[in-house]
Amino acid sequence: MSDPAFMIVFVLVFIFSIYLGFSVGSHAGERAVTGREYWAYNLFAVVVCIIATAVLTLAPLLCAAPLGFLAGCLTGLKMGYGESIGPWKVLDRFFNVNKGQRARTGRASSAATRRARKTGASVPDLMSVTNDAASAHNAHAHARRDGRTDTQNKR
Q1: Residue 16: enclosing H or E segment and its boundaries?
Q2: What pLDDT was estimated at residue 63?
Q3: How many CB atoms are closer than 10 A to CB 55?
Q4: What ranges in 32-146 are assigned the alpha helix state H?
Q5: Greater confidence, 104 or 148?
Q6: Which residues contact 90 (CB under 8 A, 6 or more apart)?
């Protein structure tokens, strides 16, 4: 076990299993619509890791695979789920990331967004982007206030 070749291959297996776990976890996280499904996928990943570790104790070189797979899977689940949940809330708040996701968490629109993403439907609009007469009037009013003409606004 102190052989350099063993250590190099051990690290390579660990890194590959992190990548593999992240791929599987992000796919599963995208399928989760509710927090309950997200936690069920997490529990499933932990149980699979425990079983795989028990089986692979006979091959010391492969003992890194279940741990790396679990680390990648848990991270991939969070990234695929797309919102701050559980202990990730603390980290996201501390590093001040995912502000939009943190604000959306717990609202009914967040479940509708995840459900639409899962079924492939269009995500609910957060604001209107239609170009009606009122929005055209507002654009002209802003242009007059700025002192620009219509030809200057078109540039």
Answers
A1: helix 4-31
A2: 87
A3: 11
A4: 35-56, 64-81, 87-95, 99-104, 108-119, 133-146
A5: 104
A6: none
